[in-house]
Every structure is written in C-alpha cells, then in structure tokens.
Write a structure and sequence with these properties.
532 residues, alpha/beta, eight-stranded mixed sheet, 13 helices, 25% helix
C-alpha cells in the first residue's frame, strides 16, 4: 500500500550523517520545512570521523551548539598526531594539528578532536524537523515544480510517496541518489579495504602523559575515542587474523593488557569527486558529492561547508527573495574546493607514508630505536588553515569591488567546468582577505563577540557609517546593518563611509571602499547576488 504524507516538505534530505543533520538544522533556522530520511535504524555507533576543524566549529557556533560539541570532545592537547613503532614505544615523530592543538588568532573558535558518534547526537538535537530512521529512498523522479520520492520503511515494508520542492542527497560515498541520476566521478576511486576495531583497554600508562588524537604505528593506527575511555584500531583489512591480535600488534610485543573487542566495521576508503553536484532540483553534498581519504580529517568538514553554502540559497529560492538561478552558483563554488581538498588529503597520506618509510630505513641501517626521524613536513602536517579558511568563491553570487557583477566568461556558462571559483589557498598558511569571495576575516568587536557573530539567517552589511547605509536598506531581502568600529576599517580596507556586504554563509558578496554615488546600491547588489 502506497501512503502519501499529509504535508509535503520543501526539502527532502536523504542521509542522516553529520552533513545531512547539519543541513536539517540550517534549513530549519531559515523556516524551511524539512524531512530527513536515513536508511539506518539509528545514528552511527562507530566513531568514524574524528576531527571538527575551525571552519566547521564556526558553523556550529552559528547554530548555537559549538560549546556542547567542545564539552564532549577531547582537550586541545589531544590535537596532535604521534608516530611510534608501537604504542608502547617512544615517539619517533609528532606534529600538532593547527587550529586544534591551540587557538589561532584567525578564528573565534578552536577545532576539536571528537568522535562522530558524539557529534551526531548534538546535531540531531539542534533541530526539531522530522527525522525518519530505517527509511530508504527507492524511487526518484523530477517534475516541473518539484521532485517525487518513493520511500520504504525497512521494518514494516510500508511505502510512502513524498513530493518535495528540492532533494538534498547526503547519502554517503555509495550514494544511491547519485547512482540513480547517472552522475559519474573523477578520481582514483577505491583506495583499499580497511577495518575499524572498537575496543576497551587500559592504555593510560602509555598515552596519558603523551596525548594524541591519533597514534600511527607500523601495525595500524590507534585512536582514543572519548575523554572517559575507549579506543579504536584501524588499518588495512587483514586475512585470517583475529581482531584482538590486530590490536595487540599495534600495542607492542610483551603487552599484557586485556583487550575487549566491542565492535568491528569493514569499509572501503574512497577518493573521488562527483562530475556534477546538481541535477535539476536534486543536489549532492558531503560524501555523495566527494569521497575524501581520511588522512587529515578533511572529508566531513568539507561536507559541512557544502551545506553551509547551499542552505541559504535554497531558503532564498523557496521564500521568494532569490531567483532559481542562485542555485546555479552552488556547483561552481564548491566543486573546485572538493578537488583541492582531495589533492590535499592525498598529499597528507603521502606524508604519513614517507614518515613511516624514513623510520623503516632508519631501523634497517641500525641507527637505533631512540634516534629521531626528520619530519618530511617540518611540523606542517595538519597545518591546513589556508585550505579550510582560505576558500575564495567566484560565481554570479559574488560581485566585484564597488558592487558590480563580475564579467562572465566561457567558464561561467560551461556546465561541465569547475574552474569558475578559485581553489582555496594552496600551502599551509591562511592570509585573511576582506575581498569579495573570501570568508569574512574574524575580528573581535567585543569580548566574546566576533565579526562572525554578526552573521546569521540574513545578509550582513558591516560599515563604519551605518546611519547612511540604513537609509537605503530595502526589502525583500533579509538584511542587518552592523556598525564596524573605526579601529577595524583598515583591516578590511574600508574608508570611513565604506561597507562590506556579507552573505549568510560568511563569504563577502561585495565591498565598497567608499560611499557609492547612487541611492540604490544595496538593492542593485542584492538583486545581482540573488538573481531576483
């Protein structure tokens, strides 16, 4: 029997991992009706993603849940990776995770080491929109004004038809939605089969005084799961080896610590980017759009950035203050970021392999177990602020200085091109830029109030001359005008009457260094940005 929902959602989200749950919370804050379906019967019981970087924590601060996430996470001193022959041996190399191990002046928040099974409950509680676990999407078709989705309850077998204006697919690397749409992928694909073993053991003697988020050994990696206890081992899936033996090898010879195996998961590490992020009214995000190797903790955070970019655009189109063309900016803005992130993750993996190779060569040449290894990255591993904070969008939703639309090129109109936006800053350093397309640089306006805290479900106009600009604010766009203290104007390259127009996702849409001549400046700029 086929059942139709009494009230159709504006947006159907497929997938209840961190990306889908973040999208649900963001859309609800915009007043968008949302239904989220997840084929699993519950939230993930596995730790899976481990790192929430500073940019994602900025998004979660905007949602009001950053403190709760940090309270359940490890202390900052765990923001380090350590290399050992086994856990019982000394470090032969280590490196701090920049933006996690200690605060950075470029952000009002600090990233955290936490487990996905601790993060997801915080995200689930951040919104009240309906979530249906144990429900799988089994059919999808587009109509002129929406999408028809067929859902089946995996327990009862009951089928339901949902009509939504848009579908946001966040259903993982093996996305059924992406497969149904026939969207291909670019990249190496499957890199290997891995196993995660969740276990209990008292390892404080070898870790408490030298904390880390990851201990990389010659026999797989060990990860502390929660501040109160619990561990995981992960590595290449072996043949014919007991799971407890896998853990024991990584701990070291002669260990006598009891190991209780709790759960085991086999999985495939993928590396690809979807050829397209959009098919009409269906949009891909998270692992459905890009599968990023785990080295560096970039994948989940990339997905959070996807939906932070997308949800305000969906809200604008649904609520009538943006034209449908605004959604065309999603792919050219996010696709280059995905390709650059994949490149960085592969580079991170190569650095780890190189460190292990150097250590193996050192032992083979008889230099001794106590000799340090010269790091191949000079303490730069995880120094990725240029990647996570230096994203620079180029699209029709970003204007030039003085609020004029960018000149269109062949790249802008080529649906198969992903070069419309510039990739994030290459290298490790982040250079704050108060320029159109860039994330608004953080500055403290007051104790515990950042310029980033002026952002929300609205456009923000930051200006040292709010009285003038207030006269020209115009509906239908959600807009707030925020005074910018004079001491910050030089940092943002503004004169005493200039202004920055900032999108709801924190990226600068336009900049006027001085007061413009006309009275319709804001109206014209928002019309161009939103395509209304």
């Amino acid at each position: 029997m086929m059942v139709e929902l009494p009230t159709d959602p504006d947006v159907l989200i497929v997938g209840g991992g961190p990306v889908g749950l973040t999208a649900r919370a963001l859309l609800e804050r915009w007043g968008v009706r949302v239904l989220l379906v997840e084929k699993r019967r519950e939230l993930s019981p596995f730790p899976r993603s481990r790192l929430v970087n500073v940019r994602s924590m900025e998004v979660f601060r905007q949602l009001g849940i950053a403190d709760g996430i940090a309270d359940a996470a490890f202390a900052p001193r765990y923001g380090r990776i350590r290399f050992r022959d086994t856990l019982y041996d000394r470090d032969f190399a280590s490196a701090a995770m920049v933006g996690v191990h200690a605060p950075v002046p470029e952000s009002p928040v600090i990233g955290v080491v936490t487990s996905q099974d601790r993060l997801e409950p915080e995200l689930l509680a951040a919104a009240e929109a309906e979530v249906r676990f144990g429900v799988e999407l089994v059919g999808l078709s587009e109509e002129a004004d929406g999408v028809v989705a067929s859902l089946v309850d995996r327990g009862s077998g009951e089928e339901t038809v949902v009509r939504a204006r848009y579908v946001l697919a966040a259903d993982g690397a093996n996305s059924g939605v992406r497969e149904r749409l026939g969207i291909g992928t670019d990249g190496p694909g499957a890199l290997g089969s891995l196993t995660t073993v969740v276990f209990d053991a008292d390892l404080d003697r070898w870790s408490a005084d030298h904390p880390a988020g990851v201990y990389v050994t010659a026999h797989g990696s060990l990860l502390p799961l929660y501040p109160e206890g619990g561990w995981a081992w992960f590595g290449t899936t072996p043949e014919g080896t007991e799971h407890a033996d896998l853990v024991s090898r990584a701990l070291g010879a002669g260990n006598h610590v009891p190991v209780e195996v709790l759960r085991v998961q086999h999985w495939v590490m993928n590396a690809f980017v979807a050829e397209r992020f959009r098919h009409g009214r269906i949009l891909l995000a998270g692992d459905a759009a890009h599968a990023i190797p785990i080295t560096g903790g970039l994948g989940m955070n990339l997905g959070v950035g996807d939906v932070h970019n997308l949800c305000w655009k969906l809200a604008g189109v649904l609520q009538g203050w943006a034209g449908p063309g605004l959604l065309e900016s999603y792919e050219p803005e996010r696709l280059p970021v995905a390709h650059e992130t994949l490149r960085q993750a592969v580079a991170n993996a190569q650095l780890v392999v190189k460190a292990q190779t150097l250590r193996r060569d050192q032992l083979l040449t008889g230099k001794g177990a106590s000799a340090p290894v010269e790091l191949p990255w000079s303490e730069r591993y995880f120094a990725q602020l240029g990647l996570v904070l230096g994203v620079n969008y180029r699209s029709t939703a970003v204007l030039t200085d003085n609020g004029t639309p960018p000149e269109r090129t062949d790249t802008d109109t080529d649906p198969d091109s992903h070069t419309a936006s510039e990739p994030p800053d290459r290298g490790t350093d982040y250079i704050p830029r108060a320029e159109p397309g860039h994330r608004l640089p953080h500055r403290w306006l007051a104790p515990d109030r950042s310029t980033l805290d002026t952002l929300g479900e609205w456009f923000t106009l930051l200006t040292p001359d709010p009285a003038h600009w207030q006269q020209h604010a115009a509906p239908p766009w959600p807009l707030r005008i925020e005074p910018l203290p004079a001491e910050h104007t030089d940092r943002y390259d503004l004169g005493p009457h200039g202004a920055l127009l900032v999108r709801p996702d924190g990226h600068i849409a336009a900049r006027w260094r001085a007061r413009p001549a006309g009275d319709g400046t804001i109206h014209a700029a928002l019309t161009d940005v939103t395509g209304l």
